[in-house]
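worker-3 :: picked Ribulokinase
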Amino acid sequence: MSANSERYVIGVDYGTLSGRAVVVRVSDGEEVGGAVHEYAHRVIEEALPGSGVRLGPDWALQSPADWIDVLRHAVPKALAAAQVPAERVVGIGTDFTACTILPVTADGHPLCERFPERPHAWPKLWKHHAAQPHADRINALAAERGEPWLPRYGGKISSEWQFAKGLQLLEEDPELYGLADRWIEAADWIIWQLAGVETRNVCTAGYKGIFQDGAYPSEDFLAALNPGFAGFAGKLGADLAPLGGLAGRLTARAAEWTGLPEGIAVAVGNVDAHVTAAAADAVRPGQMVAIMGTSTCHVMCSDQLAEVPGMCGVVRDGIVPGLWGYEAGQSAVGDIFAWFVDNCVPASYAERAAEAGLGLHEYLTSLADGQKVGQHGLVALDWHGGNRSVLVDHTLSGVVVGQTLATRPEDVYRALIEATAYGARTIVETFEAAGVPVEEFVVAGGLLKNRFLMQIYADVLRRPLSVIGSDQGPALGSAIHAAVAAGDYPDITAAAAAMGKRETAVYAPDKERADAYDRLYAEYRRLHDHFADGDLLHRLRAIRNEASA
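worker-3 :: tokens ->
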């Protein structure tokens, strides 16, 4: 095929702090240009923009204007970097963090545009955990009533998800709840802006919206939580759109934003983690993809339905049509390392790192890399952002055991990395014990750049690690979905085989280190099980919240 006849698609990945666009060649998945746009408001955690209204503990919001700015800036810049004529672009696909959700009017306008001084009018980011008490009530009532959908979520739904956040909206700002005609995932809202039609994708509906076997939780169940909540499902849209499907065509307004041709294919919305499976060509049963960044999401396909304790969910067609898609995750991974470096490392380390020409993370890694397994005498729990799997409790908190007056920053840094690896092993073992074998562990995300961390994961997991062959997995995955929506491939599996990228067994476990880590992992599990009920950690958080009020 000549260069003049090549077709291209664009994938747009909406992350926690920025959005990125990648231009991808349809024939082979080659990424020919990209651009990143940082959100002006980043994560809104302390006070609302403009009004300065203070937010409570565990709040995390975003601004929809930032998402539109990604279309205005990142897409044209990516196109310019690729030096691809806009008329060669045949489709656009997007992915989003989830559950990132917002209240809007019937025509799609965010309520924060009309009520910027009211916290509940703004989109709640995935890491908004202030709805944990509402999630607790949902879980308790569902368990008491034996709701059939509860085992599909490992026995607990998360405070991050649609229903917990929706119940919080109702009970803390009932007027706004009434004004919200739609309660919509950002993954679907951005498609509404691109194509001019409201759609709901099967992925977020299933994993974040408790949609199972063709229905949301019953009105009777919702009314038992709060009579005003009975009709909540009516705000969630109707028919669900299949992944890889055609949501609509690019509108004139969106064409003006992006510089793309009006009328090109707009793919059905998706979640950043789930779409990455296609980018890694890991959409077959037994391939677990761990997307490792600020948090980690574990997704995998299977032809078997099983109830995995503590999983985030199992959804028919949730990753690719025709298979069951499983999800689990860790609420904080890279965020833990960033917190430690930003708050717990003395200035002298920064000076030494600068002298060595290294960043602080690189410097701590170099020091930790010189240790033998267990030399620091520490074991930690990776719960600084709560526990997504397998305990599903976002009010848990981090624990480090074994510190002495001889403990150094690099010791704790290594122990925190190891803790996240132990958390990943807990998830893998839980899946396999439930009858869902993990035959290949594939890593994607920004933490791939840390070879030391990757080797620790291989040693702790006692298995080889395959790695995605792209630095922009979600954006590439969204582009793959766009190629399917544009009709260039019959389905996601075929498109992933042609356009996805994966290197197998890049990191292999070392037997001696793996044996040593088995001993430490056993201690991690003892600590994990000891604090799993959250009794002490919940009391400490309650004291903190009272003192902060």
